[in-house]
Amino acid sequence: MYVKTTKRENKSGTVRYLHLAHNEWDPVKGRAVPKVLFTFGREDDLDRDAVKRLVASLSRLLEPGDALAATAASDLEFVSSVPFGGAYVLDHLWRRLRIDQIVGRVGQPKRGRRRDMAATERVLFALVANRALAPSSKLAAADWITNDVHIDGLADAGEQTCYRAMDWLHEVKDDLEKQVFDEVANLLNLEVDLLFFDTTSTYFELEEPDEPVARDDAGRRLEGDGQAGGDAKPVGFRTYGKSKDSRDDLPQIVIGMAVTRDGIPVRCWCWPGNASDQTLIRQVKDEMRDWTLSKIVWVADRGFSSAENRRYLRKGDHAYIIGEKLRSGSPEVQAALSRQGRYQDVGENMRVKEVRISDTDRFVICHNPEAAERDRHMREQLVAQLADLIADTDKLSDFKRGELRGRIADKPGLNRYLRATPAGKLRIDQAKIKAEENLDGKYLLRCSDPHLSAEDIALGYKQLLEVERGWRDMKQIIDLRPVYHRLEERIRAHVVLCWLALLLIRITETTTGDTWPHIRRELDRLHLGTFTGPTGTFQQVTALTKPQRDLLAKLQIPVPKQVVALQPATR
Hints:
The protein is α+β, with helices and mostly antiparallel strands. Helices cover 41% and strands 23% of the residues. Strands 9-8-5-10-11-17-14-13-12 form a nine-stranded mixed β-sheet, sandwiched between helices. A four-stranded antiparallel β-sheet has the order 4-18-19-20. A hairpin with a 2-residue loop joins strand 1 and strand 2. Helix 4 crosses helix 7, helix 5 crosses helix 17 and helix 7 packs across helix 17. The protein is elongated, with a radius of gyration of 33 Å. The protein starts with a strand and ends with a strand.
């Protein structure tokens, strides 16, 4: 296909006409003859803007690289094409939060010669962008930075450069997290009244856990001989513990995260794999004491609901909303469940009832009718399965019945409804079924704030799902695991990189109202093409689509320049 020119003579001279044509084989003439597909009209009256619009429309039918190659001048060579939009957006958010400036501030020594932190800052951003866009090992990330993405101000990076940046990040983690949060609070006008905290674990496919070393109460490794302080406890960082991924057979670490009610991650922590949830929240509260936060209501699930934790969280001007274990059998739980009262509807599939049984704490019973129906259905299935298992067991010997009872004991769902008579016979526990019916669709909350309404307490606790969503995105989108590191400092730095990536993702989602996977797919379609020719080399961005323009407008990010870089040829 080509542009064909025809001439026509008139009184004013020669007039040239332009046509879009291609050659077709004519079997009669035995040769190729031109066939006109479209006529542009007179060359001197050509509407060049209309031609540009036509070319742009046609280029959208091609892949970004093919479009650039097709629209390039004939004397230009199309060299490469890499995704551009995702890193471009993340970089603007990174700078809007002033993280580039924060890195420069926290990286400077208190005395002596100042460091040039520009290169370290660019590598750190590239590693964060890698977690959000194409999570991989640091070796693969270095190759991704060099060959598969455009990072402004960073043409390439080596594996050791990435490791040095991570080592520095581990050293300044605490200062960096606090200053980043201050910028986030200013940018988003955050009013942190509820702070949600939860933990997860991530495992390592190791044959043996790490060697035990002396650690303080916060799980940090003690320097020197490790004998400083009488409370030092020897434990490895990657060690066995209660896995939340159902991998108790592998060493793990425990990770904690605090988020706001909007899902914005505030800070993250790491502990050895055998750390207990019951003690962690006290350390978290202490370390958040110096942050510029107003009165905080801590929201945590029932894993943190010890009397000591509750006393600790009440200190100062703070309060808590904590889930209670319905099956704990404690006098307070029994009293709360036995109190009569009327439920109040506070939302779709949510009813609440407040009961007063303590001078310091308020108890709110929440009931979800849909969840109650699911609980009833599941119980009926379990009871039916148990009935089949113990049918005709009266005819078995005591030894055989004991074997069956042992197998059922390994299945908590079934064992809950099993009882044994004094003679050793196996029966369905009808009293237990009746007790469980009273718990269908319910959960119990304990709150120390006297001013929150029962509705606010229930809805506030329900927002704890934001932390669970954060863990889900950490593991499924940012790929927290597998962790390709052996050194404790690098593992801790890896978690901070994931936290920073989640922060940028949440701000993007909150601002646009869209999910990150969809945003990422759309932005990755915006490519940067590299061309070289007799006069030099330049890089050009593909034309923006309407969805891409809409995303940039919502995020208040300027449209990228069409030509990003231009390097004239040397003479």
